[in-house]
Amino acid sequence: MSTHIHHIAIQDDWEMSRGFGEYAVATRGTHLDDEGFIHATTADRVPQVVAQRYGDLALPLLDITIDVEHLRSAGVDVEWVDGAPRILGELPMSSEVIVAEHPIAR
């Protein structure tokens, strides 16, 4: 499995979470508490996720690159279901876990 996974975040959701130090949005319009995990994807599937899940949305998006080993070291596990990663807890917004934040051009 990859050492890096990706999460697509609405930029406003991501920025609002900074003050808490953790991010708990599972996916568009859904909180971690309701879904049970944070949706993630692999690098090659980012364009597909953006098109399918966020294609009709005009808000700015970010591609968040996450280091799986550092995430696990922070006490948050990742499970793989049908080739897609699921983050099983709140995402720590530390520089060790969050490798990069890239705006998504659309």
Compressed to H and E, one letter per element, the order equals: EHEEEHEHEHEEEE
Radius of gyration: 13 Å
| Residues in helices, as a percent range | 10-25%
Number of helices: 4
Number of DSSP strand runs:
10
Distance between the termini: 28 Å
- Give the low-confidence spans: none
What characterizes the major β-sheet? 3 strands, antiparallel
Helix-strand category:
alpha+beta
Overall pLDDT, averaged?
96
At the first level of CATH, the class is: Alpha Beta
- Count of folded domains: 1
**What CATH architecture do you see?**
Alpha-Beta Barrel
Widest beta sheet: strand line-up: 1-6-10
Q: Per CATH, what is the topology?
A: ADP-ribosylation fold
Compact summary:
The chain has helices at residues 11-17, 32-35, 46-54, 68-73, and strands at 4-10, 22-23, 25-27, 30-31, 38-39, 61-67, 78-81, 84-87, 91-92, 98-103. With 106 residues, it is α+β, with helices and mostly antiparallel strands. The strands form 4 sheets. A 3-stranded antiparallel β-sheet has the order 1-6-10.
